[in-house]
Design goal:
eight-stranded parallel beta barrel, two-stranded antiparallel ribbon, 281 residues, TIM Barrel, 10 strands, alpha/beta
């Protein structure tokens, strides 16, 4: 067994939820697992409990609520009553309380609301999740946002501060999104920031034309482009953990190994400033 490293979170967005993947993760020291109520056709929680109930206590487990089954497939809601019931259902289906519950993509509902109405709706949703943590239905709560830009106009100042803010991370995140996330995390006083989707949903050809290894302090130490992209994602934006989805044990092992690489933070800062400069032209 390798030493457990909570910085790499195994995400189950596109995963087949096979038990072998979870045992492989534990063998590699990956002990953080992230899922969501709608994953695997709203069956993720039940499948995890059915195939790996004995393994789940070995993981710190995060899940997300905010999407609900509907005739069209799924609908989004910030209704505090529905959110609380979703957290209760998650604990029942998993057979344990999640360590963290995240409000899933609140921007889906906020996009159609005025800033004032959005502020009220987001505030009620965050209060509902904070209450579930207070009541012991989960260990902590937070917000997972694919696009943080709609959150800016609602003025999160004064709303409950999330324990975790989960956002997109890596080289494929645009400078507008990076800048908004930086402002949002400060205004909201989030406890921790987690990154997600460091490879942009599997755009492998990107790394054939772009080499991120110069952003490591030891680019000649045999790191692959994918390893360099993953390790640098912890600084785009600065994050305590990054969730990555894979069903490939070898790929997961490469990413675990990449945690040992040292990022040239000065080069990353220069890269961000260059993007900001291009935007201003």
């Amino acid at each position: 067994m390798h030493g457990a490293d909570p910085r790499l979170v195994l995400g189950l967005h596109r995963s087949r939820h096979h038990r072998g993947l979870l045992t492989a993760a534990l063998d590699l020291g990956v002990t953080a697992l992230d899922t969501a109520a709608p994953y695997l056709g709203f069956r993720s929680h039940a499948v995890l409990a059915g195939t790996a109930a004995d393994l789940l206590p070995e993981f710190t487990l995060s899940t997300k609520v905010g999407f609900f089954p509907s005739a069209g497939g799924a609908e989004h809601s910030l209704d505090p009553v529905r959110l609380r019931r979703a957290v209760e259902r998650a604990a029942q289906e998993l057979g344990r309380e999640p360590d963290t519950v995240l409000l899933h993509n609140p921007e889906r509902s906020l996009a159609s609301l005025s800033p004032a109405d959005g502020h009220a709706a987001l505030g009620n949703a965050c209060t509902a999740l904070a209450d579930t943590a207070r009541d012991g239905l989960c260990g902590a709560w937070g917000v997972a946002s694919w696009d943080t830009r709609p959150l800016g106009p609602v003025q999160v100042t004064g709303l409950p501060s999330p324990d975790v803010l989960m956002v997109r991370a890596g080289f494929l995140v645009g400078i507008d999104l990076l800048d908004v996330t930086t402002v949002l995390r400060a205004a909201w006083q989030a406890g921790e920031v987690w990154g997600m989707s460091p490879f942009g949903g599997g755009h492998a050809k990107v790394w054939e034309g772009f080499d991120p290894r110069p952003f490591l302090r030891s680019p000649r130490d045999g790191w692959s482009r994918v390893q360099a992209a993953f390790r640098t994602a912890f600084h785009l934006p600065r994050a305590a953990a990054v969730a990555v989805g894979t069903d490939d044990r070898a790929h997961l092992a490469q990413l675990v190994h990449a945690l040992g690489a040292e990022v040239d933070t000065a080069a990353v800062s220069q890269y961000v400033r260059a993007l900001q400069g291009l935007r201003q032209r």
